[in-house]
């Protein structure tokens, strides 16, 4: 790996809720400032890709609506120049396919930034990617595809918390942070990003499972003592797993994450809840319930609340 290679070509792989949010911001900024030496490319598919090709991608948020036109949009990675920075923004059930598609485009200096939820995404990618720099990351924002070519944001500040690749701890993030600064993307660089990644995982896994189990939005779960108690118990199980793995979570993390849930707009749904409603059994349940149960079993941490909530969800889905 060379030191601090400049970034020019950016690829958003998976231009849905998360990829579309960042893709719209980046393309919009590049469209309006021709002095910026960045080209942003989108990988998308179906009607969404057709709409993006015709009119770019539109991001609707409470404060404003912006549209960004990428340098090109495609469903074939081969059509694109080799990217310097790849945002990986697919759901976990599409991750292996996405990695297979990007591998031929990855060189020693390629930077891969996965924004999926999950505490083990780095490992899931690294097992199939021998070269390149993978920066473990997480993000807080509520977004979804509202219709072809249109992304809607509800809540979250879009802050990317990211840090060093365990394989290249001396990686210099400046080209990435310069790029984020130019794009006005909110971020925080951490030498060790895992406490943040596990804090996000503790929040999202508990709320994903609770929102689906109780069929309530994030705000409704936060306002309901019984649903909040279930989320809290799942958080305690995740906290015990993180501790057993040697990850030091911030003090009072459960209280903090429960308070943060109450700050999301009341009607915000989790992305897991949206998938269960629209795609049924194709969802990220394994990333949450499945992973907690497997890691608990490996580490000797008991996970009875996650087991009962996740089993009930799976039974409900297989009865449909
Ligand atoms: N949405 C949110 O608020 C948040 C989501 N996350 C996490 O971010 C990750 C992404 O979630 P989200 O953005 O909501 O997911 P979406 O389903 O909205 O977006 C993923 C996009 O990737 C596309 N895609 C997948 N595989 C391919 C492929 N091979 N070629 C082209 N396009 C492809 C999908 O297409 P298609 O629709 O056709 O499948 C979809 O448009 C998840 O892990 C999620 O948990 C994290 C924080 C917040
Ligand atoms: C809860 C939320 C919106 C927070 O970022 C999220 O991560 C998700 O729904 O996947």
From TrEMBL:
Molecular-function GO terms, alphabetical: 2-dehydropantoate 2-reductase activity
Q: What does this protein do?
A: Catalyzes the NADPH-dependent reduction of ketopantoate into pantoic acid.
Descriptive protein name: 2-dehydropantoate 2-reductase
Q: Which PANTHER family match?
A: 2-DEHYDROPANTOATE 2-REDUCTASE (PTHR21708:SF26), PROBABLE 2-DEHYDROPANTOATE 2-REDUCTASE (PTHR21708)
Q: Which UniProt keywords apply?
A: NADP, Oxidoreductase, Pantothenate biosynthesis
**UniProt keyword Iron, yes or no:** no
**Can you tell me which residues the record assigns to a coiled coil?**
none
What EC number(s) does this enzyme carry?
A: 1.1.1.169
- Which SUPFAM superfamilies does its entry note? 6-phosphogluconate dehydrogenase C-terminal domain-like, NAD(P)-binding Rossmann-fold domains
Q: What's this protein's family per the entry?
A: Belongs to the ketopantoate reductase family.
Q: In which pathway does it act?
A: Cofactor biosynthesis; (R)-pantothenate biosynthesis; (R)-pantoate from 3-methyl-2-oxobutanoate: step 2/2
Highest taxon listed in the record's lineage? Bacteria
Q: Which EC class is the enzyme in?
A: oxidoreductase
Where would you find the membrane-spanning parts of this chain? none
* InterPro entries the UniProt entry points to: 6-PGluconate_DH-like_C_sf (IPR008927), 6PGD_dom2 (IPR013328), ApbA (IPR003710), KPA_reductase (IPR013752), KPR-Related (IPR051402), KPR_N (IPR013332), NAD(P)-bd_dom_sf (IPR036291)
Lineage, highest ranks first: Bacteria, Pseudomonadati, Thermodesulfobacteriota, Desulfobacteria, Desulfobacterales
Residue ranges annotated for the Ketopantoate reductase N-terminal domain, each copy included: 10-164
> What's a BP term from Gene Ontology annotated to this protein?
pantothenate biosynthetic process
Q: Which Pfam families match?
A: ApbA, ApbA_C
Occurrences of domain Ketopantoate reductase C-terminal (ranges): 196-314
Q: Which GO terms describe its cellular component?
A: cytoplasm
According to UniProt, the reaction catalysed is:
(R)-pantoate + NADP(+) = 2-dehydropantoate + NADPH + H(+)
């Amino acid at each position: 790996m060379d030191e601090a290679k400049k970034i020019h070509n950016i690829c958003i792989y998976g231009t849905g809720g998360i990829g579309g949010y960042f893709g719209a911001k980046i393309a919009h900024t590049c469209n309006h400032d021709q002095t910026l030496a960045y080209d942003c490319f989108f990988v998308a598919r179906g009607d969404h890709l057709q709409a993006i090709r015709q009119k770019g991608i539109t991001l609707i948020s409470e404060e404003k609506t912006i549209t960004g036109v990428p340098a090109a949009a495609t469903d074939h990675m081969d059509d694109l120049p080799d990217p310097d920075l790849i945002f990986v923004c697919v759901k976990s059930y599409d991750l292996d396919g996405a990695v297979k598609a990007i591998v031929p485009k990855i060189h020693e200096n390629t930077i891969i930034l996965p924004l999926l939820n999950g505490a083990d995404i780095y490992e899931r990618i690294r097992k199939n990617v021998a070269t390149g720099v993978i920066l473990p990351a997480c993000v807080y924002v509520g977004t979804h595809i509202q219709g072809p070519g249109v992304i809607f944001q509800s809540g979250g500040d879009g802050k990317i918390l990211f840090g060093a690749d365990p394989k290249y701890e001396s990686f210099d993030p400046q080209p990435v942070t310069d790029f984020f600064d130019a794009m006005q993307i909110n971020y925080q660089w951490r030498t060790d990003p895992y406490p943040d990644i596990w804090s996000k995982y503790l929040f999202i896994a508990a709320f994903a499972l609770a929102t689906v189990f109780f069929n309530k939005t994030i705000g409704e779960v936060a306002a309901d003592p019984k649903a909040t108690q279930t989320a809290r118990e799942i958080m305690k199980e995740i906290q015990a797993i993180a501790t057993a793995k040697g990850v030091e979570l911030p003090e009072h993390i459960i209280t903090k994450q429960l308070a943060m849930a109450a700050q999301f707009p009341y009607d915000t749904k989790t992305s897991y809840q949206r998938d269960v409603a629209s795609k049924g059994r194709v969802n990220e349940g394994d990333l949450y319930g499945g992973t907690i149960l497997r890691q608990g079993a490996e580490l000797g941490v008991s996970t009875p609340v996650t087991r009962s909530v996740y089993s009930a969800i799976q039974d409900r889905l297989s009865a449909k």
